[in-house]
Specification:
elongated, 3 helices, mainly alpha
Length: 93
């Protein structure tokens, strides 16, 4: 197996692990925030709706996790740049 194949396999493994982790992160986010909303409702919904803060800020983290796991920004560019650098190195030797 060449070094390039090994690197591609390593990156594919990292992406698979990120997707696997996201599949646990999202349900935990939903369950915990549903519980927080229920607690807020049981303690009097006329109070300040404090669950919006964890829903919003944790939601940003969940969205970032989703984007990293399923929409690898710059992934194509990284492949092209790697190939370009490898070709430059081959030309110098």
């Amino acid at each position: 197996m060449s070094a390039i194949d090994h690197e591609r396999r390593r990156r594919a493994r990292q992406m698979a692990e990120a997707r696997w982790a996201f599949r646990f992160h999202l349900p935990i986010y939903l369950i915990v925030n549903a519980a927080l909303v229920i607690i807020w409702l049981l303690t009097g919904p006329s109070n300040f709706p404090w669950p919006v803060f964890p829903i919003f800020f944790w939601g940003i983290g969940v969205f970032a996790h989703y984007m990293a796991a399923y929409h690898n920004p710059g992934g194509g560019w990284l492949d092209r740049e790697t190939e370009r650098i490898l070709k430059e190195d081959e030309g110098k030797s």
